[in-house]
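ESCALATION

Customer reports they have been waiting on this structure for their group meeting. Please prioritize. Original submission:
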Amino acid sequence: MTIAIGALVAAADLTKERLELLTRLGFESISISFWETLGTTDLGRLADMIQEAGIPVTALSIWGNPLEVDSTYRGWKQLIAASSDFGNPFVTGFAGRVNSQSVEDSLPRWKSVFSDFLEDAHRYGCKALLLENCRMGDVWKRGKYNIAINEDAWHLLFATLDDPLLGLEWEPCHQVEALVEPLDQLERVVDRIKHVHGKDAHVDWQQIRRIGLYAPTKAIHSTLPGQGDTDWMRLCSILADHNYTGSIDIESPSGNFFDSIEQNSRALEYLKQWSMQPR
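Update from on-call: job pushed to the front of the queue and completed.
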């Protein structure tokens, strides 16, 4: 069994030439992301360009708060409706949050919005809707982006909406940043995880002990796989042992995938040595 290793790329950065470059470098899949709105993106034209390039799409993602931002709410619905044009990938994003409210106080609004999304997902035959757990600075009692920030929140969300099309999009980076042991967590929730981002983080423990978590400078830094604190060989083994059928799409800590294409290519080769081992 092997796991496809791909690229997480902003839709605005995609061109025919860049898709050809990804294929030539050996990236095996692509995850396409938007920030808060699809804007004027012609999804049909984008789907045609990617189909011509011949690279599978594993996820369509919109980052933002669908409980508060109309363009993000509409973006979820547009991506769900268009997912079949892209080969039926996952549709993913933040769970959203009622602005400045706690996780619990945001649940009724979340249930209403995601019941709507899930109804669309079933109607259009969408593969699954996945919640990504980047905190965006949010904490349990307040925030403005995301209530799907940790395991306690996930348990509440899945108890609120028990639907087979609802799952998690996960990466070790956010767990390392929260000082959670990522692979122990992976073992606990792997059955909910349908898509993985290839991003890691490194904790400078000497600096943590000196300045803590809330200083103006950071003691924890996002990295590519192979440069952080996670054992990716064990991560891939856990996924394979649980018959994971998704991909690992590399997310560049720099933000723009193509600005760091050489480093991302090295991360690709690093991950392939673990993902392609016989199981």
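Sent to customer with the following note: The longest helix spans residues 103-124.
Escalation resolved.
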